[in-house]
Amino acid sequence: MQSAQLDNCRICGRLFLKQHTDYCLECYKEMELDFDRVKLFLKSEQNRDATVEKVSMCTTVSAKRIAHFIREGRIYAEDFPNLGYPCAYCGKLIKKQILCNSCFDHLSFDISHSLEKEEYVNQILKNQRSSLKESHYWRLKQGK
């Protein structure tokens, strides 16, 4: 059985005994109340087409926290056509992850291209070092 660890709350910064969440008890309770307000708002049929901004305005829950609920999977955004949050790179409305598919593909391509380039440069440097070692060896061998 593990003992609880001291940690700082991710919201308010207070020290607390971390057992199941990254938040102190007060912030956790507040977050759950916010979630209940959002869930109750979205349950109403007339609010199913609401955007994050509208939900935020009507429930007084920050858009950032609503996006957090969506990212955690506590709110299933696929059930709500206009509910989503901006891609971290381009700002396009998304419903899961941090980046939209096109930004993710672009970033993946850039990373793989950079890794290939780095591998190519390392191979050239390795070849240069080996040729320098060989020439140094033959110069020593010939007594020069």
Note down, in words, how this protein is organized.
The protein has 144 residues and is mainly α. It has 2 domains: 24-99, no CATH class; 100-144. It contains 4 helices and 4 strands, in the order E-E-H-H-H-E-E-H. A two-stranded antiparallel sheet has the order 1-2. Strands 3-4 form a two-stranded antiparallel ribbon. Strand 3 (85-86) and strand 4 (93-94) form a beta hairpin. Helix 1 packs across helix 2 (52-59). It is elongated, with a radius of gyration of 27 Å. The N and C termini lie far apart (70 Å).
List keywords for this structure.
144 residues, mainly alpha, 2 domains, two-stranded antiparallel sheet
| Largest sheet properties | 2 strands, antiparallel
Radius of gyration: 27 Å
Mean pLDDT: 86
Residue fraction in strands: 5-15%
Low-confidence stretches: none
Structural class: mainly alpha
Give the topology string: H per helix, E per strand.
Answer: EEHHHEEH
> What is the total number of structural domains?
2
Q: Number of DSSP strands?
A: 4
Q: Can you count the helices? A: 4
Helix-residue proportion: 40-55%
* Beginning-to-end CA distance, first to last residue: 70 Å
The 3D shape can be described as elongated
Q: Order of strands side by side in the largest beta sheet?
A: 1-2
Q: What is this entry, summarized?
A:
The protein is mostly helical.
